[in-house]
Amino acid sequence: MQAGTMVATEDRGALLRHAQFGSSSRHMRLQTLVRLRWLAVAGQTATVVIVAFLLRFPLPLMEAAILIAALAAANLMLSTWFPTTHRLGPHSAAALLGFDLLQMASLLFITGGLANPFAPLICVPVIISFASQPIRHSVLLILFALICTTVLALSPYDVPWYPGEMLRIQPVMQLGVWCSIASMMSFAAFYAYKVSHEATLLADALAATELVLEREKHLSQLDGLAAAAAHELGTPLATISVVAKEMERELRGDDRFREDVQLLRSQSERCRDILRRLTSLSTDSEEHLSRLPLSSLIEEVIAPHREFGIEIEVVELGERGSEPIGNRNAGVLYGLGNLIENAVDYAKDKVTVTVAHGPARVGITIEDDGPGYAPDILSRIGEPYMTTRPSESERAGGLGLGLFIAKTLLERSGAAIRFGNRAGGEPGARIDVEWPRWAMETDKRK
C-alpha cells in the first residue's frame, strides 16, 4: 500500500490539473435558451395585445408584429435545425443573445424608447450572458446593450398613450432612466457572474474530489488484484512449465532447439517467481487489509514525504495499546496526505505531526516552520482555487484546490478542521484535525 500511496502522490497534480481545466468553457443548452425566448415571445405578444386592444392606446401594430414574428421565426429555425440536446459554444450563444437584445431594443425604440415602462427588460439578455457565458463575451454584450440604451434615449417615437394626449418625458428624466438602467444592468450582471462563477468552481472542485477519492479506492485494491492475477495465471503457467520440461528432455540431443527450450523453461520459472512475489503481497489476513491502527495510518501517510529534505517528527501523546483501530479509509489517507504535503512544501526545515487519542476524541495536529497563513485569508481557507500562502504562490499551482479536496474528504469522514498559525509568535502554519473516537474506530465485536 505504501507504493500505491506514492503513486497517488505523484498523480495528484495531474488529477487536480484535469479537474481545473475540465470546465474551462461554458456551453449553454440550446433548449434552455429556446424556452426563454418562447417566454419572451409570449410576453411581448400579450403586452402588445393588451396595450392595443384592451387599453386602446395608439401603437405601431404592424412593426411590433414583425419584430415579434422575427423572434418566433428564429426560434422555430433553431428548434428545427438542431436537436434538443445541442449545446451552444460561447460565440453562438453570444450571437443569439445579441440578436435577442437587438430585437428587444428595436421594439422599445418604436414604442417610446426609454420612456417605455418596459425599458429595463433590455437588461435580461445581459444577465443571462453573465450567468452562463465566459466573461469576455459577456463584456462585449453589455457594451452593446449600453449602446442600444443610448440609442433608445434618442427615439423620436412617443409612448403609446390616451388619444389626444401626449406623454412628454423631459431630457433630465431620460438621463435618470438611462443611469438607472445602466447601473441596474451592471450590478445585476456582476452579481450573476460572481454567483455563477463560484458555483462553477465549487462544482469543479467537488468533481475533482470524487475523482481523487475514486483513484485512491482503486489503488487500495491493487494488492487484492495482484493476488487474484497470480492465482488465475498460476495454472496455465504450471502447464507451460511441465510442457517445457518434457520438450527439454525429448530435445536434449538436438542442438537446433536445445537453447530455445532452455530459454522457454527459464522464463517460465521467472514468471512463477514474479507471481510468487505478487502473491506474498496479500499473504496477510483480510483483517490487515481492511483495518488500520492509528499509528500505522500516520506512518502510511507520512512515508511518501520523507525523501524531500524536510524532517518530519511524529509525537504520540497516547499509548499505542489504547490507540483506535479503524477501517482503511481512502478519503482520510488522501486528505491527511495532502495536508502533510502542503506542510512539507512550505516548511523550511521541519514538520511536526502530533497524534493524541483519548476515550472520546482523536486528534492530529500538523505544524510547519514555514511562513504560515496570511491573516487576511485565514477565514477563507478551504475555498477552491485560492492561494493560501503569502509567498511562493507559484509552487504547487497556488490554487488551493488540493486543500479544498483534503478538507472536504476529512469533513466527510466526520472530522472537524481548524486552520491557523503556530502559537507563541513562532513562524509557521498549524492545522488541527479532530474526530470523535467512534468515527475513527471499528467495532471489534463485528
TrEMBL record:
Q: Which InterPro entries match?
A: 2C_sensor_his_kinase, HATPase_C_sf, HATPase_dom, His_kinase_dom, HisK_dim/P_dom, HisK_dim/P_sf, RegB, Sig_transdc_His_kin-like_C
Q: Which SUPFAM superfamilies match?
A: ATPase domain of HSP90 chaperone/DNA topoisomerase II/histidine kinase, Homodimeric domain of signal transducing histidine kinase
Q: Which GO terms describe its molecular function?
A: ATP binding; phosphorelay sensor kinase activity
Q: Which cellular component, as a GO term, is one annotated location? A: plasma membrane
Q: Which residues form a coiled coil?
A: none
The record's PROSITE patterns line, in alphabetical order, gives: HIS_KIN
Q: Where is the Histidine kinase domain?
A: 228-439
Q: Which reaction does it catalyse?
A: ATP + protein L-histidine = ADP + protein N-phospho-L-histidine
Q: How does it sit in the membrane?
A: Multi-pass membrane protein
- Sorted UniProt keywords: ATP-binding, Cell membrane, Kinase, Membrane, Nucleotide-binding, Phosphoprotein, Transferase, Transmembrane, Transmembrane helix
The transmembrane segments are 36-55, 135-154, 175-193
State where the protein is found.
Answer: Cell membrane
- Its Enzyme Commission number(s) read 2.7.13.3
Q: Which Pfam families match?
A: HATPase_c, HisKA
PANTHER family referenced in this protein's UniProt entry, alphabetically: SENSOR PROTEIN CREC, SENSOR PROTEIN RSTB
Q: Please give the name of this protein.
A: histidine kinase
